[in-house]
Design brief:
Jelly Rolls, about 45% strand, mainly beta, Tachylectin-2, Chain A, 2 domains, binds 2,5-dideoxy-2,5-imino-D-mannitol, Glyco_hydro_32_C, seven-stranded mixed beta sheet, hydrolase, signal
Length: about 575
């Protein structure tokens, strides 16, 4: 391609934006940096921040998944929902159904707080399809004494395609928080059941046991009477409690999903996912059927080094085996990053990330994720560019798509690996700090290069999603950042610089891919074919006041990078919970 006609001076613009946000003053002889008076900005209460194709109800608070599932022609999304307001509380199970994971029909709540064993909240749980096809949901109830107990509901009419009504069984609670060392207020979020060679069902429940985090194991013949196994499925002394454990099997290098209750093929690995530290982490290992324990391939004492499902704003995810398409899908919750009073004013808070196909990489070392293919049904007006060359400081404007609702895919190809800066393993302990220190305005050898999204005309507001390439002893390490620090001029927002590293065989793979789904206040990115995912929330003033934003590809590293392929689509609005049946 001919040299870009619109290559702007990237560093200059970025510096301009930086300095417009700070004042440098002299006080008592010292030079100090001061934030300027907050500029007058329009109210955050704007429909324009509501997402167009991410899952959310029409109003009120939502949080984590209650185990989505596919059954009899419909996908079911159950979620933690406050029917009375936009802050956490009064939690019931919201329920929506879909045939395509994109458009959703809102139903009445599936489980409400109306018995002594859930009067203080119907918290997270899971659905299981028992042998013979009986559907069952097990969920955590906060009881009259605010103890966390596990309850069962069954569909009233299993042939109702929407499964609208659920009946609580008389035996509730089926599991109580009893036993030595168990904290009765930290005992929740049962997994989907799986059946062992002895014909008994198993579930794991997140718990605090003797002050430490555990996925407790329970067994049952009939899914109603449960016995706690004398050892947990897995436990760790690194933290006090795990929420939302998820346990599933995967085959290295195979994108097909596995049903944990079906025969697990030789060579399969198991994954234990847990929610802690405001993020979802996981371990890959082996499920020892004889001992009934999960044995991780690697045990890292420092939990900052544990692998993460997503390095951004993503929590309480649950996965399920989609028998319709033979894949495993994972789904997580993304909170607002404005203030609680903003959420009260808006009348809504929380979205769910795009459902992602999840599988294990061929080396068996890490999970990969990719937005479910169905989301592409929203694509419209494709634009594409080939053979762009981005030299140091280049900014290439991506025009012709709706920059507020877009799906962008870019491949970056390095012209040389000679300039790669050395990798320092200590960065792994705090990738956000490294993303702050080595941000998009800091020149590197190879990188930073990536995308600038939701940028105002003068760049005062912008969000970058970008890579840097480092050389470690025998391999390359790629840093992916999603830097929100300049995403908005609004005061009082949480605007971190998220980041994650992945290993990359540059000699073999050559191209580093980035896919970013922009959905108004959501920026969801997939780096290196889904090795690092970063979900983020942003509230640019320009989105409300100017009604638009700009999008660019950029490079700010010494080495030129090529973009052999750039494709972008506008995303049409999905029908998300607009219709109630
Ligand atoms: N939120 C739920 C719990 C879960 C936590 C309560 C995860 O079941 O542990 O709304 O966000």
């Amino acid at each position: 391609m001919a040299p870009m006609s619109q290559a702007w001076a990237f560093s200059f613009l970025l510096l301009l934006a930086l300095f417009s946000s700070f004042l440098i003053c002299s006080s008592n002889g010292e030079r100090v940096f001061l934030y300027p008076q907050s500029p007058k900005v329009s109210s955050i209460v704007s429909k324009r921040y509501r997402t167009a194709y991410h899952f959310q109800p029409p109003k009120n608070w939502i949080n984590g998944m209650c185990r989505p599932m596919y059954y009899n022609g419909f996908y079911h999304e159950f979620y933690q929902y406050n029917p009375n307001g936009s802050l956490w509380g009064n939690i019931v199970w919201g329920h929506s159904v879909s045939t395509d994971l994109v458009n959703w029909i809102r139903l009445e709540a599936a489980i409400e707080r109306d018995t002594p064993s859930d009067i203080n909240g119907c918290w997270t749980g899971s659905a299981t399809i028992l042998t013979g096809g009986q559907l069952v949901i097990i969920y955590t109830g906060a009881d009259t004494e605010k103890r966390q107990v596990q309850n069962i509901v069954l569909p009233k009419n299993q042939s109702d395609p929407y499964l609208r009504e659920w009946i609580k069984v008389g035996d509730n609670p089926v599991i109580e928080p009893v036993g030595p060392g168990l904290n009765s207020s930290q005992f929740r979020d049962p997994t989907t059941g799986w059946i062992g060679p002895d014909g008994l069902w198993r579930i794991a429940v997140g718990a605090e046991l003797n002050g430490y985090s555990a996925a407790l194991l329970y067994k049952s013949k009939d899914f109603l009477t449960w016995t706690r196994v004398d050892h947990p499925l897995y436990s760790s002394k690194t933290f006090s409690m795990w929420e939302c454990p998820d346990f599933f099997a995967v085959l290295p290098g195979n994108k097909s999903g596995l049903d944990l209750s079906a025969a697990i093929p030789n060579g399969a690995k198991h994954v234990l996912k847990m929610s802690l530290d405001s993020c979802d982490k996981y371990m890959i290992g082996v499920y020892d059927l004889k001992l009934d324990t999960f044995v991780p391939d690697t045990v890292l004492e420092d939990r900052r080094l544990w692998l993460r499902i997503d390095y951004g704003n993503y929590y309480a995810s649950k996965s399920f085996f989609d028998s319709k398409k033979g894949r495993r899908i994972i789904w997580g919750w993304t909170n607002e990053t404005d203030s609680s009073s903003d959420d009260v004013a808006k009348g809504w808070a929380g979205i769910h990330a795009i459902p992602r196909t999840i599988w294990l990489g061929g080396d068996g070392k890490q999970l990969l994720q990719w937005p479910v293919q169905e989301i592409e049904s929203l694509h419209t007006g494709e634009i594409s560019h080939q053979g762009i060359e981005l030299k140091k400081g280049d900014l290439f404007e991506i025009k012709g798509t709706d920059t507020l609702q877009a799906d962008v895919e870019i491949d970056f190809e390095l012209t040389s690996n000679n300039n790669t800066d050395p990798f320092d393993p200590s960065w792994l302990l705090d990738t956000e700090k490294h993303c702050r220190e080595a941000d998009a305005s800091v020149h590197g050898g190879v990188g930073p290069f990536g995308l600038v999204v939701l940028a105002s005309d003068n760049m005062e507001e912008h969000t970058t999603v970008h890579f840097r390439v480092y050389k470690s002893q025998h391999k390359y390490m790629i840093l992916m950042c999603s830097d929100l620090r300049r995403s908005s001029l609004r005061p009082g927002l949480y605007t971190p610089a998220y980041g994650g590293f992945f290993e990359f065989d540059l000699e073999k793979e050559k191209k580093i891919s980035l896919r970013t789904l922009i959905d108004r206040s959501a920026v969801e990115s997939f780096g290196g074919g889904g090795r690092v995912c970063i979900m983020a929330r942003v509230y640019p003033v320009a989105l409300v006041d100017d009604g638009g934003a700009r999008m660019y590809a950029f490079n700010n590293g010494s080495s030129t990078v090529r973009v052999p392929q750039l494709r972008a689509w506008s995303m049409t609005r999905a029908q998300v919970n607009v219709n109630k049946v």
